[in-house]
């Protein structure tokens, strides 16, 4: 096993071979642009780590890792169009830099490219990867639709919200880890447990993302701080604030989340104050810790060395304490 930075650097090197200039440039330049913007590379790193956890050289998992990263970025391109987001990782989103039509078509091409990356694996591994990928991709779409539906509802519950982020975000993290294990031809029990580890880590990761959207530093967060508030997204912070508030404060929050001011800065600040004063901000941080610990508890079911468990736990702690 290696340190996380090793897998990150190995993946970025492999990615550079993939993002070479192709024609038509109007299709492929936006793909290379979004893939080159950086990001945490969380999912492909986990794929490479999972392969080595089960005693297979990480290089064998590079294709699967790249597939996960290409799919993830495809979903971001289309999500940004749906959200009308101006920034992604501190730079213009694809549809802002080019056009909505370019974002749709380049995103479609990325989905196809993600599947193509499985073609170099032996038939039985290819079939397992493709089956998991198809299931996961559909769940991500379902999660995105739940997210859209919640924008017009004021009665979203915590269980509904957790299901939405499980599908929209966490299943892809679980799949990333299981793909590494599939490449390593790990046992069925190992496949199940490593998926559960990744899924719980993914829920913690998304809750942290929600928290940073409201309270992150715009210089390090990479996205528009307060974007979820502007878009009236019913995040864990919002739902918990309703749960903890009196009738008057509830009415005030619901009214704020039905408004679309031209200058949203006051709205953002007022909502953030309510998140803090209600206790919702603190409750969200505790939920992040709870799901991180759930992920760690699954590791005890895996028949791997303590050194490997420690490496995965360290990675989880880094995610829980991140600022980007």
Query: Which H/E pattern describes the elements?
Result: HHHHEEHHHHHHHHHHHH
Q: Can you tell me the CATH superfamily?
A: Farnesyl Diphosphate Synthase
Level-2 CATH architecture: Orthogonal Bundle
Specify the overall morphology: globular
Strand percent estimate: under 5%
Our count of helices gives: 16
In total, how many domains does the architecture comprise?
1
Largest sheet: 2 strands, antiparallel
CATH first level: Mainly Alpha
**Class inferred from helices and paired strands:** mainly alpha
Mean pLDDT over the residues: 94
Rg is: 20 Å
State the helical fraction.
over 70%
CATH T-level fold name: Farnesyl Diphosphate Synthase
Q: How many beta-strand elements?
A: 2
- Separation, N- and C-terminal Cα atoms: 25 Å
Short description, anyone?
By secondary structure, the chain is mainly alpha-helical.
Q: What does this protein look like?
A:
- This protein is mostly helical and 324 residues long.
- It has a single domain (4-320), classed as Orthogonal Bundle (Farnesyl Diphosphate Synthase), CATH 1.10.600.
- It is built from 16 helices and 2 strands.
- It has helices at residues 4-18, 25-36, 42-53, 62-83, 94-97, 100-116, 123-150, 158-183, 188-215, 218-221, 227-230, 236-244, 247-256, 265-277, 280-299, 306-320; strands at residues 87-88, 91-92.
- It has a two-stranded antiparallel sheet.
- A hairpin with a 2-residue loop joins strand 1 and strand 2 (91-92).
- Helix 15 packs antiparallel against helix 16 (306-320).
- The chain is globular and about 60 Å long.
- The model has no long low-confidence stretch (mean pLDDT 94).
């Amino acid at each position: 096993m290696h340190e996380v930075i090793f897998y990150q650097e190995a993946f970025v090197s492999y990615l550079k071979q993939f993002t070479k200039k192709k024609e038509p440039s109007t299709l492929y330049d936006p793909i290379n642009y979004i893939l080159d913007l950086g990001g945490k590379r969380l999912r492909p790193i986990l794929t490479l780590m999972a392969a080595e956890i089960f005693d297979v050289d990480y290089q064998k998992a590079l294709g699967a890792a790249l597939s996960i990263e290409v799919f993830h970025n495809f979903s971001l391109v289309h999500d940004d169009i749906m959200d009308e987001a101006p920034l992604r990782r501190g730079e213009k989103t694809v549809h802002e830099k080019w056009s909505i039509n370019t974002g749709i078509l380049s995103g479609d091409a990325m989905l196809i490219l993600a599947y193509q990356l499985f073609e170099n694996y032996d038939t039985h591994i290819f079939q397992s990867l493709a089956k998991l990928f198809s299931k996961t991709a559909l769940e991500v779409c379902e999660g995105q639709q739940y997210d859209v539906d919640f924008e017009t509802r004021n009665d979203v519950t915590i269980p509904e919200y957790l299901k939405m982020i499980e599908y929209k975000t966490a299943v892809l993290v679980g799949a990333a880890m299981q793909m590494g294990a599939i490449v390593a031809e790990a046992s069925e029990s190992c496949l199940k447990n490593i998926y559960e580890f990744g899924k719980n880590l993914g829920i913690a990761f998304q809750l942290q993302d929600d928290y940073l959207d409201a309270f992150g530093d715009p210089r390090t967060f990479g996205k528009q701080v307060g974007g979820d508030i502007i878009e009236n997204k019913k995040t864990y912070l919002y739902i918990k604030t309703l749960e903890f508030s009196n009738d008057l404060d509830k009415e005030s929050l619901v009214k704020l989340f039905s408004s679309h001011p031209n200058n949203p800065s006051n709205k953002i600040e007022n909502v953030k104050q309510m998140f803090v004063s209600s206790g919702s901000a603190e409750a969200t941080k505790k939920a992040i810790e709870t799901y991180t610990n759930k992920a760690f508890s699954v590791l005890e079911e895996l028949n791997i060395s303590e050194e490997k468990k420690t490496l995965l736990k360290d990675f989880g702690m880094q995610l829980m304490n991140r600022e980007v």
